[in-house]
Amino acid sequence: MFKLNEIKELIKLIDETSVQEVEIENEGSKLTIRKPGPTEYVQAPVNVSAYPPVTQMMQPSHTPFVSNAPGNQAAPVQETSEKTESNLHKIVSPMVGTFYSSPSPEAAAFVSPGSKVTEKTTVCIVEAMKLMNEIEADVKGEIVEILVQNGQLVEYGQPLFLVKSE
């Protein structure tokens, strides 16, 4: 019979070497110690926090592909609204992250529709990997529309604001 401290010592020794499996027989007792392979490790449950759904989609710059396959009933492509005409500048997200309209939950929003901005005006914060990144307007003009909601997950290149440039 093997003693517990002997088994622990064997496990420790095998763990420190490249040996994958050891089988020992002693006085009618048999002990097998085997290192688990890469697929044998038990995975701990992973907690995933849900992000709010992304409700604003980027408008394609070209006509989208529509398949004529049976069962595919595509909705007709809508024309772009007057607000996305060429005279409006889009401030886009430079990264994937969470959009915040103010520096803190209690503070007022950086900008609102009708706000005048310059190239250096901070319009929002995009949090990425626990870093708060201030996003500047990069154009002089007036905020026409805010395209995302506070706390919403945004994608790289996703339009955040429409600005009527001067």
Describe the structure.
The protein is mainly beta. The chain is built from one helix and ten strands. The strands form three sheets. Strands 3-10-8-5 form a four-stranded antiparallel beta sheet, with no helix packed on it. The protein has a four-stranded antiparallel beta sheet with strand order 7-6-4-9, with no helix packed on it. The protein has a two-stranded antiparallel ribbon with strand order 1-2. The model is unreliable at 46-51, 55-67 and 72-84 (pLDDT under 50).
Widest β-sheet, arrangement of strands: 3-10-8-5
The dominant shape is rod-shaped
What class, by secondary structure content?
A: mainly beta
> What are the secondary-structure elements, in order, as H or E?
HEEEEEEEEEE
Q: What's the main sheet like?
A: 4 strands, antiparallel
Number of helices: 1
Find the count of extended strands (DSSP E, 2+ residues).
10
- Radius of gyration in whole Å, from Cα? 29 Å
The low-confidence parts are 46-51, 55-67, 72-84
Range of helix content = under 10%
Q: How big a fraction of the residues is strand?
A: 25-35%
- The span between the termini is 88 Å
| Overall pLDDT level | 76
Could you give the topology of this structure?
Elements lengths: L3 H12 L5 E6 L2 E6 L53 E5 L4 E4 L15 E2 L4 E7 L2 E6 L4 E6 L6 E2 L4 E7 L1
Antiparallel strand pairs: 1-2, 3-10, 4-6, 4-9, 5-8, 6-7, 8-10
Summarize this structure briefly.
By secondary structure, the chain is mainly beta. It is about 5% helix and about 30% strand.
